[in-house]
Amino acid sequence: MEDGEIDEGMLVEEDAQVPQEHHPKTEKSPYEMLKDSKTAVEEIVAKMLSIKKEGQPKSLLRELVTQMCLHFVTLRQANRLILLKEELVKAETERAKAPVDFTTLQLQNLMYEKSHYVKAIKACKDFKSKYPDIELVPEEEFLRDAPEHIKGPEPAKDTSHNLMLKRLNYELHQRKELCKLREKLEQHKKGLLETIANRKKFLSSLPSHLKSLKKASLPVQNQLGVLHAKKTKQLQSAELLPPPLYVVYSQFLSQKEAFGENIDLEIVGSVKDAQAFARQQANKETGISINIENSRLEDDAADEEDDGQRRRKRPKKVSSKDNLDQAGVYQVHPLKVILHIYDDEASDPKSANLICLKFEYLLKLNVVCVGIEGSTDGPENNILCNLFPDDTGHELPHQSAKLLFGDAMLFDEKRSSLPYKWAQHLAGIDFLPEVSPLLVDRETQNSEEAKSNSIISGLSLYRQQNRVPTVLQRIRSRKRAQLVLAYCN
Q: Is the pLDDT confidence value at 255 over 80?
């Protein structure tokens, strides 16, 4: 049986079956009708099979076929009823499902709205405002100092929220006022910077103007005898002198200014080298190491290897004067002090320049050497030799210098400047004698009694505190005597 045939039977028999719904035969349910028709069809089929097997007449089959067709019609009717009932159940189900779907949709809408509100509440709770980080003025100060248009007519009756808003508005008002003040100060600062720039420009050009004025005033200074520029330059150079030479310079300058001594002082040498040496000494004292090339201040060390074996490094012994020069023992400070001594008995003292002495400082030996500037005379005509008893200048004045010399105990006689003991005293370099004075006195009582008297008488004058005038007096007297001898010869 095809579905199309069933549908056609259902449409044909629909009007015929409706008035039969109240008939007693149609009170069976469609499922029972379907079951009974199925059973009847199975029985008819069994009878038809048995007739064919037994060979009975075909007339019996026709009646069974007719009955089977009737049962097929009943099956179609039952099928139609089942389908109609199914449609009714579906319709009732849809009618019952509609309010459930509506309620479900409302529930989903409410849940979505709830989640939206929950997210909004969470965002509001998580919102971080800047006002907790703002240092607001205290409430009492706000009520006292805030203007009326911000504070309101009755601030005491405001809620905490309104009061906080008013305090924030007051803070905003204060910041706006401060911004205006800042702009004014910026403008004032800009004006001051322009003024400072103009003054710096003037100050930067001032040294050139002062230099030109100074240069223009030199002829006037020379004419009036007021050498202010030269004196200032000398005082600036004096600050770079080593301490012993500074003492010599200050002592002679003080003697000249205090007692009108007829002498002149001059500092010569390279100021740049003296500045570099002063910076080097300052860095050594403060512990800062800098790379300054000055190999003359370092001793050479021997680094020898024999047969591939490493030996201990030992410094070379300075055994000759050439080695002393190479080792930097005679290294001289860049600045020197020149002393012009004039004859105080001449009518024109400035024209009678008796002698010109040069004071220099040996860095390694820590001694002050003195020589006659521009002198070509031999050692026998040196008036500085034995200016005081037993002070020829050939012997080193203190023990530390002798240790540096090693085997060469005498100073280089070829040098024009020698380390006289009186020069060390003038420079403030005092030292102990090599032998105790008590021991010297006992040894000389027997063998040198006659000589000791002359030494003590010669040194008594030198041991006085008037070192500078004593030295000047002796040098003048010797130079005059030398001039008299030369004139007589």
A: yes
Span 89-128, pLDDT tens digits: 999 999 999 999 999 999 999 999 999 999 999 998 888 7
Distances (CA, A) of 157 to 136, 160, 163, 378, 429: 20, 9, 9, 113, 90
Counts of helices then strands in the chain (DSSP H, E): 16, 8
pLDDT tens for 340-398 read 998 877 656 555 788 999 999 998 888 999 999 877 666 667 888 888 888 888 887 77
Per the DSSP assignment, residues forming a β-bridge with 355 are: 341
Q: What is the spatial distance between Cα 95 and Cα 312, in angstroms, rounded to a whole number?
A: 117
Residue written as token pair 């800042």: 182
Q: What is the pTM of this model?
A: 0.47
Q: What SS3 class is residue 437?
A: helix
Q: How far is residue 97 from each of residues 21, 87, 101, 111, measured CA to CA in Å?
A: 29, 15, 6, 21
User: What are residue 314's phi and psi, to 5 degrees?
Assistant: -125, 140
CA distance 289 to 301: 21
Q: Rounded to whole angstroms, what are the CA distances from 426 to 108, 259, 331, 395, 406?
A: 113, 18, 21, 18, 27
Q: What letter represents residue 340's amino acid?
A: H
* pLDDT of 289 higher than 80: no
Q: How long is the chain?
A: 489
| C-alpha distance from residue 73 to each of 24, 39, 41, 48, 80 (Å) | 19, 14, 11, 19, 11
Q: Cβ distance 274 to 305 under 8 Å?
A: no
Task: Enumerate residues 6+ apart whose C-beta is below 8 A from 472.
Answer: 255, 261, 263, 341
